[in-house]
Amino acid sequence: MRGEWRFHSAGEIIFGRGTVRRTGEAVRRLGARRVLLITDPTLVAAGLHQPVEQSLAEAGVTVDRFEGGQAKPTVEAVLACVAAMGQGQYEALVALGGGSNIDLAKGAAVVLRHGGSPADYFGENRVPGPILPVVAVSTTAGTGSEVSGAAVLADLAHHRRGSILSNYVRPQVAIYDPLMTVSCPPKVTADAGIDALSHAVEAYMVVDSVTEAGGEDPASPYQGRSPLTDLLAEEAIELIGRYLRRAVYQGGDLEAREGMHLASLLAGLAFSNAGLTAVHALEYPIGVASGCTHGVGNGLMLPYVMEYNLPSCPERLAVVAELLGEEVEGLSVWAAAEQAVEAVHRLKADIGLPLRLRDLGVPETELRRLAEETAQIVRLLRANPRPFDVNSLEELLRRAW
Ligand SMILES: NC(=O)c1ccc[n+]([C@@H]2O[C@H](COP(=O)([O-])OP(=O)(O)OC[C@H]3O[C@@H](n4cnc5c(N)ncnc54)[C@H](O)[C@@H]3O)[C@@H](O)[C@H]2O)c1
Ligand SMILES: [Zn+2]
């Protein structure tokens, strides 16, 4: 473990049932009186915008609504959002939704302050300074975008996806009201929940110094593991083991919804400081090739990457097994670590996630190309505890196929 580490978060985190009513006062604390609410038609149909707008109105905040959010937001959607604002003179953006709407809002907030296209800021630390404040009201239990320094956007014109990675894009306020996640359908719950598990397990496996592993910038949002990210990841893994199945199958189970929302917060704080591994690197090309959701792509690769990494971090994976509720007493560290891999396979099967790459419609002939594309994502691969090259990536994809 390095001697020095730092930790970044959203400016303020508000957690608990009913806390959506705090949105207005949180906006006022930022000094804003005129905001744009960024959301999507599904959430408006579910009425989730109502308590947000009511809270804003009660606090004397003027609000306009942009409903152009979409799953896996694009650069084009961000530009449409910015164009729709016209001369709106908004002092803050309130993002209501899952990772997609929050990332859309972050992209818009960057462009509003610094100009250009969100794609100009893809990569690490390319945002030159603070952005328009974002207040994130989370409606899924998964991505951690409410607290993270990342915004993931598809760039249709260039057939790629990119991430804006900067501590400047962390929201000023993150509101986690578990009641706002109750209407999530089982598939959204499963996808988002496995993404949170992936964040936590990856943050727990990541090398302990990204800089030493070849990172060029010590101010990188991803710093490698620290005692704090380890604690957060451990708690998140335990919560997900206990509550994800319940949240998927009994959507109205408030204890499970609250447990998952907390897990997504803790996992978000963990990964957005420690960093991620090969799972998220593989998800990029798999997501583009198959059109699957972020959660499905990560969930698919997670146990295979854990298995590949086992020789590099058996003790850590043995802890993961225990945290997921596996019976590990009397087992060797290695056998316990293998149980962690099995536990994730079982959890995925239980919540109805695809188990094989072929189930996503990816042809076997594409695997080499996917490996080659993944190998370009050095930022994530360098943080993986066991090194990869194109051949080992291809072999891993073959195992998952
Ligand atoms: N910025 C980050 O740090 C980060 C991290 C991981 C993932 N992501 C990104 O987040 C996106 C995935 O986000 P997500 O998994 O939260 O899902 P999402 O935001 O894409 O939402 C999925 C669908 O569920 C609907 N939905 C959301 N909440 C609902 C609710 N409470 N009730 C009913 N319907 C609801 C949405 O309208 C949408 O149609 C991907 O684009 C991914 O790349 C970002
Ligand atoms: Zn993710």
Description:
- The chain has 15 helices and nine strands.
- By secondary structure, it is α/β, with parallel strands linked by helices.
- It folds into two domains: 12-181, Rossmann fold (3-Layer(aba) Sandwich); 186-400, Dehydroquinate synthase-like, alpha domain, CATH 1.20.1090.10.
- A six-stranded parallel beta sheet has the order 1-9-6-4-2-3, with helices on both faces. A three-stranded mixed beta sheet has the order 5-8-7.
- α6 (186-205) packs parallel to α10 (294-309), α9 (278-290) packs across α10 (294-309) and α11 crosses α12 (333-350).
- The chain is globular.
- The site of nicotinamide-adenine-dinucleotide has 32 residues, from α2, α5, β7, α6 and α10.
* Widest β-sheet, arrangement of strands: 1-9-6-4-2-3
Q: What is the CATH T-level topology of the largest domain? A: Dehydroquinate synthase-like, alpha domain
Largest sheet: 6 strands, parallel
Instruction: Look at the structure and give the CATH class of the largest domain.
Output: Mainly Alpha
How much strand?
5-15%
Bound molecules: nicotinamide-adenine-dinucleotide, zinc ion
E-strand count: 9
* Percent helix range: 40-55%
Low-confidence stretches: none
Can you tell me the overall shape?
A: globular
Which radius of gyration do the C-alpha atoms yield? 20 Å
SSE layout and pairing:
Elements (H helix, E strand, L loop, with lengths): L11 E4 L7 H7 L4 E5 L2 H5 L3 H10 L3 E5 L8 H11 L6 E6 L1 H16 L8 E2 L9 E5 L11 E6 L4 E6 L7 E4 L9 H20 L21 H23 L4 H21 L3 H13 L3 H16 L4 H10 L9 H18 L16 H9 L2 H4 L8 H11 L1
Parallel strand pairs: 1-9, 2-3, 2-4, 4-6, 5-8, 6-9
Antiparallel strand pairs: 7-8
Helix pairs in contact: 1-3, 4-5, 6-7, 6-8, 6-10, 7-8, 9-10, 9-13, 10-12, 10-15, 11-12, 13-15
The chain binds nicotinamide-adenine-dinucleotide (NAD) and zinc ion (ZN).
